[in-house]
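User: Some background: our group keeps a shared notebook of sequences we're curious about, and every so often someone picks one and asks for a predicted structure to add to the entry. Today it's my turn. The entry only has the sequence so far, pasted here. Could you supply the structure so I can complete it?
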Amino acid sequence: MAESYLPSASVLACQNKDWSVVTWKKDEPEAKQVHTFTCRSWRHEGPCRRWCGACDFRRVQEAIGKHKHWTYSVLTYPARQWPDVSELYRYGVIHWSRLRKRLIERFGKFKYIQTWEKHKSGYPHMNLIISNEEIYTQARSNRKRLKFDVLCPMAEAVGFGFWRWIDTMRDAGKTAHYMTKLAMELTGSVTKDQTPTNAPKHFRRLRASVGLLPKRFKDDTVTGMIIDDKAEFVANRFEIDFPPEDTTCLPRK
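Assistant: Of course. Here's the predicted structure to add to the notebook entry:
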């Protein structure tokens, strides 16, 4: 079974504080600032993972507010049937594509948001919310029949395991929190870590319908560059003030 992947170059640079970022306002190029580079990756445990989770929470919450008739689901895979779990993450994208087509044929078009986590065994599972009036109506009227007679056979036919759960969404904030939680990093609890660190490189933990999620915040008035050197050395070289306490890795308020 595949173990966690080695950290990427950006995560290593963030861990070791090897890179720096020099920024300036486009209309004030002489007023430069230097900060220690932060990767803000969900793969980097600590402040970067918390920042990523907080950012994704706000994006998911905003996306949920744009549509109605949301249902929440959990899809799983049967354990011990894949010797290489990293391959299962790759095939999961294919399985979802097949399942999405079948859902559209049965219920019509829909919007979706999904996040991937892992069980203690290392096998992934998918948290999924769907905005579709027909699915929502059937989940409210007879959730068990929808699950066992329709969704479970459909999921297993395309490669997933048992369709673990489906229910109508009751609270947008709580759903957004659960969808984007990164184990104890966000919840503050002692729950087991379900961050899918054993997923292959470039795997996107958060996926959604095209155009549904708002983009991450970007200040278009600011530009800059990444330098392969520690921030204190860069500050001395360019004679730039270096903040004594760098908090660029923390979530923005």
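Suggested note for the entry: Helices lie at 9-16, 47-64, 85-107, 133-158, 172-180, 184-187, 231-238. Confidence is low (pLDDT under 50) at residues 183-190, 246-253.
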